[in-house]
Design goal:
single chain, 126 residues, alpha/beta, 2,3-Dihydroxybiphenyl 1,2-Dioxygenase, domain 1, four-stranded mixed sheet, 3 helices, 25% helix, globular
């Protein structure tokens, strides 16, 4: 998946240092690679693209205005403790947490918004 970002360096720090996401390709120290590409699990990766270039990558589609969520990004984890820990890391890194982790009718989940307002829902893999 790819996400537009208004501030690539800030988004890189949030995901790399704040959430501890692993880069697809290693870099020296805390250097920001180009492209910024994280491995989320064996089958899913996240690429951060500056807002100005996102329309080109997305085939001419415009980026939504700030504060508009076009979708919710879902990431399934193995345990409730992992959901709790990643939501806590996101909050410590400056994320808004509109739905703290907890039991829901559909399972255990929680949500956070990254610095660009993208909404992430973490849940326990069923």
């Amino acid at each position: 998946m790819s996400l537009p970002t208004r501030d690539l360096a800030r988004a890189f720090r949030f995901y790399r240092q704040g959430l501890g996401f692993a880069l697809m390709a290693g870099t020296e120290g805390d250097a920001m690679p180009e492209p910024v590409h994280f491995r989320l699990n064996a089958g899913v990766s996240l690429m951060l693209i500056p807002t100005g270039g996102f329309g080109w990558v997305a085939g001419g589609n415009r980026v939504a205005e700030p504060g508009v969520s076009e979708c919710i990004l879902g990431l399934s984890l193995e345990t409730e403790a992992q959901v709790d820990a990643l939501i806590a890391r996101a909050r410590e890194a400056g994320a808004e947490v509109p739905a703290p982790p907890g039991k829901q009718p559909w399972g255990y989940s929680g949500t956070f918004k990254d610095p660009d307002g993208h909404v992430w829902m973490l849940d326990v893999a069923g």
